[in-house]
Specification:
single chain, about 280 residues, alpha/beta, 2 domains, 6-stranded mixed β-sheet, 9 helices, about 20% strand, binds flavin mononucleotide
Length: about 280
């Protein structure tokens, strides 16, 4: 492992997320360089949903994304760390996740690199869906998720001094260069996700890979059974490539149906009064 990229989704300098990433790096005996990205340092615009990146092989928004794509391609492994903000991960993680289509031309360069995730929450039990956000991020960017943990720490530095935290960081360090740590059952048999929506009649949907499954409770515990769907997003490298192709194919579907679609949308154009910012930046 030559280069580990720490992706820090907290704007707070020398806060718990930054320290967590650095402490994990310190605990990895294998020689490596630690590169760090604090997402809030970057000018990252919101994806505008134009899909042009699928055809031009780069995003048309003029911002710092190319630096980040380059860092992802150069890295051999990732540590992704995000603080809970309002029961989910800090928004910088989602802003970058939404730009994932601009990485489509780099699937082969980024596929399957080992990664560990950290979700830091200030209040015990109040992490909300932060871990789901972090896991989703690692899957979207086609990482080989070795482990993902929630750690509680509020004040900057508590990540180190709060009892039990160092052993979690140690586990993550070991996992990054070693074997996968499977989340406890019940977990999704397809993606190892541990968050589910209950659909009724013992059916659940995994909130990570979005596949539907059945919950089975027995004396040995609760298990989820699920099967791949016909359209997967990231379970294999081929799935990721196929999904990219499917997205690109939507262009011709749009061209074929453009007239009908315009007829549906046109009547909505003038409804309502838009409130606009005083000075609109041109994108
Ligand atoms: C705006 C904001 C919202 C937060 N929301 C939550 C939350 O929903 N749940 C929680 O447990 N902690 C919450 N926290 C606390 C942070 O997750 C916690 O302090 C964390 O250690 C910050 O990481 P950092 O030191 O790397 O910035 C919030 C902090 C801020 C600033």
């Amino acid at each position: 492992m030559k280069q580990i990229l720490g992706i820090i989704c907290s704007p707070r300098k020398l806060g718990n997320n930054e320290i967590a990433v650095k402490e994990i790096s310190r605990r990895i005996s294998e020689h490596h360089a630690l590169k760090l990205l604090r997402l809030s340092d970057f000018n990252l615009r919101l994806c505008k949903g134009c899909y042009l990146c699928l055809f031009k092989n780069h995003c048309v928004l003029k911002d710092d994304l190319p630096v980040i794509i380059d860092a992802f391609c150069q890295a051999d492994a990732f540590i992704v760390s995000a603080p809970a903000y309002c029961l989910g991960a800090n928004a910088s993680l989602k802003v970058l996740a939404d730009r994932v289509l601009a990485f489509s031309g780099h699937v082969k360069e980024i596929w399957g690199k080992p990664a560990v995730g950290i979700s830091v929450a200030g209040l015990e039990g109040k992490e909300g869906f932060t871990k789901l956000n972090v896991d989703n991020f690692m899957r979207l960017f086609l990482m080989n998720v070795k482990a993902s943990e929630i750690i509680y720490a509020a004040l900057p530095g508590e990540i180190i001094i709060k009892e039990g935290n160092l052993s979690i960081l140690d586990r993550l360090a070991t996992a990054l260069t070693g074997d996968v740590i499977e989340p406890a059952e019940p977990r999704c048999p397809l993606c190892k996700g541990d968050t589910f929506r209950f659909l009724g009649d013992n059916r659940v949907r995994c909130m990570l890979c979005s596949n539907e499954g059945i919950v089975e409770a027995s004396d040995s515990g609760v298990r989820i059974h699920a099967q791949r769907s016909s359209h997967e997003l990231f379970l294999s490298e081929q799935d990721a490539m196929d999904h990219g192709q499917w997205l690109a194919g939507m262009k011709s579907k749009y061209q074929d149906n453009k007239t009908d679609l315009k007829a549906v949308t046109a009547p909505y154009k003038e409804i309502g009064e838009w409130i606009k910012p005083e000075k609109r930046e041109k994108i």
